[in-house]
Design brief:
76% helix; single chain; mainly alpha; elongated
């Protein structure tokens, strides 16, 4: 559970550092302006729709878990897991905010050229 918290809370920070995986076969040969255009298309077609869906469904998932005061019945100590399920929509929200910041930077590069 703690690793999941670590993973979800680190995703936005990793995006701010540009550390997410890319397929660089063609991307590395592009100019900065063309890279920004490719990134803008990727954000509009893939990132924003997926993050919006994950945020909506993750929030519902966490709210339902809070309503039923969910516990993990797979172990003898029955830990509460609703706080951990709350980390998911929070992490997605932070990742979405960072994605918006990167998207705006890419728009600026695409419009100005550098």
């Amino acid at each position: 559970m703690l690793y999941g918290v670590h993973f979800m809370m680190g995703a936005a920070y990793l995006l701010s550092l540009g550390g997410h995986i890319r397929i660089d076969v063609f991307y590395q040969r592009l100019s900065p302006r063309n890279k920004a255009i490719v990134d803008i298309c990727g954000y509009l077609l893939l990132f924003f729709p997926v993050m919006a869906a994950l945020l909506v469904f993750g929030t519902k998932f966490a709210a339902f878990s809070w309503q039923m005061k969910e516990k993990a019945f797979t172990t003898a100590w029955l830990p509460i897991i609703y706080p951990f399920k709350t980390v998911f929509p929070i992490g997605i929200f932070l990742l979405l905010l960072q994605g918006i910041a990167v998207f705006i930077r890419n728009l600026r590069v695409a419009m100005r050229g550098a």
